[in-house]
Design goal:
- This protein has twelve helices and twelve strands.
- By secondary structure, the protein is α/β, with parallel strands linked by helices.
- It has a single domain, classed as Alkaline Phosphatase, subunit A, CATH 3.40.720.
- Strands 1, 5, 6, 7, 8, 9, 10, 11 and 12 form a nine-stranded mixed sheet that branches. Strands 2-4-3 form a three-stranded antiparallel sheet.
- A hairpin with a 5-residue loop joins β3 and β4.
- α1 crosses α8, α3 packs across α10 and α9 runs parallel beside α10.
- It is globular, with a radius of gyration of 23 Å.
- The two termini are 44 Å apart.
- The relative contact order is 0.21.
Length: 454
Amino acid sequence: MALSGAAFASGLNKLSLMNLLATSKAPNCPNDASYKALVAIFLFGGNDANNMVIPYDNYADYAAARAGSPFEIAQADLLQINTSSQGQFGLPNRTTYATTGLYNLYQAGNLAFVCNAGTLLTPMDKPTYLAHPELRPDQLFSHSNQQDENQSAIYQGSAQTGWGGRLAERVFGGELFPLQVSVAGVTIYTNAIAQRPLVVNPAPTPLNQALRYDPDVTTHPEILDAVNAILALDDGTVLRGAAAGVKSQSLSTRGQLVTDPTVGNFPNTSLGNQLKQIAKFIALRDTLSGGGPMGRQVFFASLGGFDTHANQNAGQGGLLTQLSAALEAFYAELVAQNVVSQVTTFTMSDFARTFKIGAQASGTDHAWGSHHIVMGGSVIGGDIYGTYPNLALNGPDDSDTGSGARGRWIPSTSTAQYGATLAKWFGVSDADMPYVFPNIGNFSQTDLGFMNNG
């Protein structure tokens, strides 16, 4: 299969198509015919969520573990946020951490946090964690494994598809344009069996130039005619037929991106440019699918650099500043396009980081349960969902034990529950939910309640 994949990629490269795979048809369609989109933002490296949502009422618990570190956030530098049942928290806001965008969205009820979520095969407390290593996710503190597991929602064994791709298969309504679009390279999250993803560069690449085909087919249409004639040839081999089909669909998809829509202002940053490109796809939602509307779209963006073993003050601080500004700009654009209630944006990451300062003193190490952001007009915002962890080192939520415990929180919520809540809003039926999240049946609560499904 690896050799076949390499041959497939080689064939596409000869046509100078940028990692483009078009959509195949499937029999499933959403219950709700109106447009909806999910935008995943993966924070690669492991975001230190302990420095993103900080307890205000119990600030002493935070200060006890982080006192003296350059990334300790003073209580006076917290933007206070209230919750319905878990007290007051704060968002870091000082020279190196600027989160006013997140704060404004939260206060307006358009953003929520899902706390202490992670890769869980089954509900787990500390005694279960210690007594049953066979129930733990594979390679728990490994970057690559946890990145794949968060994107695939398959926590043991290998996975070839992601939950974003499987989600697209369940809601496919016959669109002629790919449902899954990544502006952050090839990723397992958008992989599926029947639904093929589209990969394009972020802005400032114009959308109508994102899929490149070298010959000038405008002035020499006979070139494209010749290519299509060649693709129609069939020597009887399965691989050649499949490759020709993908190339033909790729050319068709490229032909649908004939405009570069004008959208609002975005920060000229890595994430800002990715969300700007996604905003353009959303702006074309009514015309992309062969002149008809798109029913659903699944997007993937990313921001790297969160592996902050050292220099976390500037490293994570700058990244959260970038995230905050990009989300605020994206939300404003969705309001302008009048689709703010039809697009939900959310974050994922490898894992969180140790509550206790790392060995290098200016950073933190790999941990587990993390806090995530959900944003959109259909989000029941201004609140925290899930259960915020007990911050005691070697306490009931710490997977570490003894005097060397560092605060690696055992998740109280599975990423499957987190994703299933989004998938339900997106139109996935209860019957189809185990296809998207294979272990969702292990959890009694499959809807965390942060989405307005009305």
